[in-house]
Amino acid sequence: MSEPPHPLSRGVLRRLGRVDRWAFDRVAAARLPGLEYVLPRLSRSADHGVLWFSSAGVMGLTGRARLRRAALRGSIAIAVASPLVNLLGKQAFRRKRPVVDLVPPIRIRWKLPTSHAFPSGHSASAAAFATGVALEAPSPVAVPVVGAAAAVAFARVYTGAHYPGDVLAGLGIGALAAFGTRLVWPARPPVARLTDAEDARDLVTGDGEGLVAVVNPEAGGSGGATAAILPGRPELAMELLERELPAAEIVRFGPDDDVDKVFGEAAERARVLAVIGGDGTVNAGARAALEHGVPLLVVPTGTFDHFARALGVESAAQAIAAYRGGRLGRVDVAYAAPTSGEGAEEERLFLNTASFGAYTELVDLRERLERRLGKWPALAVASVRALRRSEPVEVTVDGRKRRVWLAFVGNCVYGSRGAAPTWRDRLDDGRLDIRMVATGRRVPRVRAVAAVLVGHLHITPGYRAWRASDLEVAAPSGGLRFARDGEMSSLAGTIRFGKHGRALSVFAPVDAG
């Protein structure tokens, strides 16, 4: 038999109960003009998480990566907190609901709940979602969500559904559930830090004179039949640029144009070179900007836009604001080049990542499936097929022979786990982030594929990760195919991966980093 509670414990619980009931009576007796109608309806809208999942849907539709992550983290936190409260907490404590004699009938507009009171499920869901959003979203979004969550929690007492203690317990559980998501999915910093360069205000004009913008109309899957119905992101970005910076020159290139030639000619006559496109297009713009010594303005319109998001630029409007702010930063540029090559002409630059092994097959499959399935379905199908079917590549890595199934080389250290992590804390640390799965005769397919898809590659046998300033890979006789910033390249012989430290000048938001 369990021992009865200690008399001191019983006394503390009785005093807490009296305080809880006193606080409930004070709230019940309060008259808040205008809120007699608002708070009951707000509380009702949060039934079954409808308010929060609707908010998550709206954030997801914005297309902004930070808001999508915030919506997903908040939803996951609700999925963790809700069963903790409703299946465990309520059944363990079985506290009765308050007596609502002092609550005006106008506030009790719907049937009161009959489940146990402690802890408050509505409050737990509200805190879980709001905390999850606050971990990822910018303040203009996070603050209203936190305010709505606080109002829902207060409404649970104001409408007579819960004692204040029930609400406080629910808020605590929800917040802990949201913070707990960081154990398996670390929160991403809003921007990566970079080295401040010289003041660029002498390069910036109010109407954009001296700025030459090169546009990839196909970025983000915007080409094809869809573009004839709705304007794609590149078209919308160009319209905004023309309206806000009317003196800027805009250059479009087509599928048959020589991209390097277009960017080179644009950079020759530009004081500031802008690139409107995805990561592959930004890569081409960076090459031209480095060659001609001009700063780069990134206007993201691609599918992933990893580099732009690392800078804290997620839209054309933010890019224009960064240009007008005149803040220049310097970032590292990584490269792959044959050790026997002569000069920069042999270098294959990358701003984000270079990968070989299964990832090259993934890119090939995605490009073949993209026209039939669309970009995102093609990526999902290609990921599973390539990871299941690919064979290791026999290479020599820093003098040691290895059979590499998957290799990732990042420009600067990445903070997340997995085969293809997406965020960095700095863009100027002078290091390469190297991650490889080197196998024996057989690749542990099921375990390895699952580890890649859930982002925990470190549990795969043969996985190794390290940081270095350079890396040498001796390619097989037919050369080594690798993807850099999503574009395919091929080099033969011994290939050196290295860094040009703080070589590229880029515009960054004034309030970032």
From TrEMBL:
Domain of life assignment: Bacteria
Alphabetized Gene3D superfamilies for the sequence: 2.60.200.40, Phosphatidic acid phosphatase type 2/haloperoxidase (1.20.144.10), Probable inorganic polyphosphate/atp-NAD kinase, domain 1 (3.40.50.10330)
SMART domains linked to this entry: acidPPc
Pfam families tied to this protein: DAGK_cat (PF00781), PAP2 (PF01569), YegS_C (PF19279)
Topology in membrane: Multi-pass membrane protein
Domain DAGKc, first and last residues per copy: 206-339
GO molecular function: kinase activity
Keyword Membrane set for record: yes
Predominant subcellular localization, coarse grouping: membrane
SUPFAM superfamilies: Acid phosphatase/Vanadium-dependent haloperoxidase (SSF48317), NAD kinase/diacylglycerol kinase-like (SSF111331)
Localization of this protein: Cell membrane
Keywords tagged on the record: Cell membrane, Hydrolase, Kinase, Membrane, Transferase, Transmembrane, Transmembrane helix
The protein's name: Bifunctional phosphatase PAP2/diacylglycerol kinase family protein
Lineage: Bacteria, Bacillati, Actinomycetota, Actinomycetes, Streptosporangiales
